Amino acid sequence: MGELRFDGGRMCLDLVATRVARPAGERLDRVERVAEWMYGTGLVPPGTPVPATAELTRGLQDLRTLLEAMVSAQLTGTPPPPEAVARVNEVARAAAPPAPRAVLGEDGALTRALAAPPDADGLLAAVARDAVDLFTDPLARSRLRRCEGENCALVYLDTSRGRRRRWCSSEVCGNRERVARHRRRTTPALREA
Length: 193
Fold this sequence. Notes:
Blueprint: H1 11-16, E1 19-20, E2 25-26, H2 31-41, H3 54-76, H4 82-93, E3 100-104, E4 110-114, H5 120-135, H6 138-142, E5 144-146, E6 155-157, H7 170-192
Antiparallel strand pairs: 1-2, 3-4, 5-6
């Protein structure tokens, strides 16, 4: 089902990106993918044992559904569904997120580690708290955008200068658009030749 991408600018938006809209699909379809998502988003440092279980997978999928409703409301300028807000708040306060700590590496550089092995509730709480931070910050919330790329429904925070970012990723969707534009310009010329 394609690789996991982390272009949203927030962990909670990267969770939303795990459901593929076009064609419809699920990126968190195996516990191994859940672990890959957690490492890729930085939720847990690489190499940290994660409780990638069916229970955590369902928890992330349920949280994602709530976040999708909140994102959709924000993008359409409507109030978020009260039940989604209430449930995200419940998940955010259900457990303490894993506490980070600085660890001195063999090369003398500091790296991030977790103070204790993470549990499913703590990991879900960390993502829910990220969503609470996003949706309660008027400036961050106003920067929420949907990718303009064809066949892409990813959502991201536009932190670009001038707020002119159009794609979730310039390297992926932006490149596809540039290639398509080039083909549109050059194809008629090839047909006339």
